[in-house]
Amino acid sequence: MLINLNRIRETLGEELWQAAQAVSAKGGVRETDATAEQSVCIVATDPPHRTVLSAGGRHSCTCAYFGQHGLCLHIAAAAMTAKQNGTLNRLEHTRARSAAPALLNVMESALPEESTVKLEVLLVREPREGTQCPGLRMGLRIGEKRLYVVRSLPQLLESIDRGTILSFGKGFTFHGEWMRFSPADERVLNLLRTLFSAAPQQTEELRGRDLRLVSLPEPFAEGLLSMLEETAYRFGTEEENEPGQPVR
User: What is the rounded average pLDDT for all residues in the chain?
Assistant: First the structure.
């Protein structure tokens, strides 16, 4: 907050605060210069004094009391009037606009630029009725140093998209708000998003093994295989599998 009237009141004391109220109430504050960055006023005390309220927080007054204490009844009266006529809002908006780029830079610097979470795909073949061509199921493991089985693929995507927390036991907790995957891993996750959004009713009905090992229709299986040049994967069964070679 640019100017906190309650704090000014506490700092000045009740006598000076009431004096400032009286000056403001009788129209004793006259703005002589107004810009987006500051408001310059003449406060009609005896003698009158010139005050400056600044969007940057560098307020000033020509009275001796301000020089000694950094605050005075003239600043208080000017602030009261500024709150009533909207000047304070104008200065607050200017301050917010000025602070926004710096705040954005701080936020961006705090977020990891590179991936912070590893992802590994598990491909499991399974027989399909009526054809000799096996079907393909897909699962995921994620983590930092150690990888953990994703028990529910829809729940992982929800955690990522909503920025929520997903626990994998004592060893690892996924923080969807700030943890990041590599661009190649994001493409795999986007394929899953497309798959689930194409059949929302079936996704809601998934249970048990189907939540962690989703069956891939042929177009999605082909799409996934084309991504495995840059994404780590294993091939086999849930219990026995081995690292796969990059698909080129």
Answer: 86
> What letter would DSSP give residue 196?
H
| Pairing between β-strand 118-126 and β-strand 233-236 as defined by DSSP bridges | parallel
Length of the chain: 248
Residue 199 has a CB neighbour count (10 Å cut-off) of: 12
- Residue labelled with tokens 């497309």: 194
- What confidence tens digit (pLDDT) does each residue in 65-85 have? 999 999 999 999 999 999 999
Last residue of a domain, one of 53, 88, 110: 110
**Structure confidence by residue, pLDDT tens digits, 183-218:** 889 999 999 998 888 878 888 888 999 999 998 888
Whole-number Cα distances in Å, 207 to 198, 200, 202, 212: 18, 14, 10, 9
Domain of residue 18, residue span: 5-110
- By the 10 Å C-beta count (0-12 exposed, 13-18 middle, 19+ buried), 43 is classed as buried
Q: For residues 40 and 30, is the Cβ–Cβ distance under 8 A?
A: no
Domain stops at, among 44, 78, 110: 110
What are the strands, taking DSSP E only, across 201-246?
Answer: 214-216, 233-236, 241-243
Question: Domain for residue 247, yes or no?
Answer: no
